[in-house]
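Appendix B. Chain record.
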Amino acid sequence: MSIIVKLCKKTEFLAMFTSINHYKHDTIFQLKKIKSITRPSTYVGLNQYSFDNFGLFMRHSTQPTCKIIEFDVVALNNIDPGTELTYDQAHHEEKEKKKKKENNNNEDLYNERED
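Structure tokens predicted for this chain:
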């Protein structure tokens, strides 16, 4: 496997790194498709968490190297060996807020038509 969990020298926490090249839009690995609502887990979407031994070591970053689509961890850009694999958890939260707002707007329109 191309994933290594090791101590990050900058933060002194365990983190996930790649040992091979990954290219933009490549699926690096898949998180286990076991939905968990407990911590520790990896946030993957609207009220969805995955308990995954590798995903636990993927840290949040405002300049992520990956994104999570459903349960796939996908490279945002070309990634060199030795690079930490990170994702932007806030990105998922923003998408959720937008989706909830759209759903509420659609419900309001539906309710207005019934009146």
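Further analysis of this model is presented in Appendix C.
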